[in-house]
Design a protein that fits this description.
Strand order of the largest sheet: 3-4-6-7-8-9-10-11
Strand content: 15-25%
Radius of gyration: 17 Å
Distance between the termini: 21 Å
Structural class: alpha/beta
Shape: globular
Number of strands: 11
Order of helices and strands: EEEEHEHEHEHEHHEHEHEH
Number of helices: 9
Length: about 250
């Protein structure tokens, strides 16, 4: 399995508090996968996809000098068996597979989840996904919770790759799925309302989250976004880990 790293050769696996969405505040062990099929302008884990030789854009780019990451230095391959042993030894049974996009590696992911559930049925498995890929096989049957984050136009991804109606319909009909939508400006709310209505997402399973990588950026958006959630019946989520640890790896 190809994982992101905290430093060369060291997989990004860490014990922390979930910072976002329905599980915010819960102690969790995170496993960050490398590789993603989307390329968001504001992504705070661009080291999982914005590699040398690609032509993707990111807000950290300077004029004439895009910021790129060395794929070899930023990834490490870990076998399913080795990762199973690593997670069994962790101090927490809530495991969150994040990315990148974990479902790009779902054959191996399914094997890993089966190993964990066989060892201890109390393992609780969350998948953080961008909502463009359906889970299949074991990766569909054994997952306890999907944290689905469909992307809006301000992500910089074209609608043709960021919106897969049949996939969003699948998640909307699955009670294990909750939706976390990143909002940057009040004008984004029109797009949010249309997306929720078109996909049939129950508003009670929709969380709106302000875009931001610093506490100041988050606070600047929280007041009007919280009011928007109250008016529309959505849930509001902050980014707890940013307030606690800043925009850092392994937190």
């Amino acid at each position: 399995m190809r994982l992101a790293v905290t430093e060369p050769g060291v997989p990004e696996i860490f014990h922390s508090l979930q910072g976002e969405g329905v599980s915010a505040g819960k102690p969790s062990v995170f496993v960050r996968f490398s590789q993603c099929n989307l390329h968001c302008l504001w992504c705070d884990t661009a080291y999982t996809w914005n590699f040398l030789g690609t032509e993707f854009a990111h807000r950290d780019d300077l004029p004439g000098a895009p910021k790129k990451f060395d794929r070899t230095a930023e990834t490490v391959d870990v076998s399913v068996d080795a990762l199973t042993e690593r997670l069994i030894s962790q101090p927490c049974r809530r495991i969150i597979f994040t990315g990148g996009e974990p479902l790009l590696q779902q054959r191996e992911l399914g094997e890993l989840i089966q190993n964990l559930k066989t060892f201890d049925p109390d393992f609780y498995i969350e998948i953080e996904t961008n909502g463009t890929i359906k889970p299949i096989g074991l990766a569909a049957e054994l997952i306890d919770q999907f944290n689905v984050s469909p992307k809006l136009a301000h992500s910089g991804n074209s609608a043709s790759i960021r919106l897969r109606p049949e996939v969003l319909d699948f998640y909307a009909s699955d009670p294990r799925a909750n939706f976390k939508i990143v909002v940057a400006n009040p004008s984004d709310l029109t797009e949010v309302h249309a997306l929720v209505a078109q996909s049939g997402m129950p508003t009670g399973r929709v969380w709106l989250m302000p875009e931001g990588r610093t506490p100041a950026e988050l606070r600047a958006r929280e007041t009007w976004l919280a009011e928007a959630c109250l008016e529309a019946g959505y849930n509001f989520t902050d980014r707890l880990h940013i307030h606690l640890y800043g925009d850092t790896r392994g937190t």
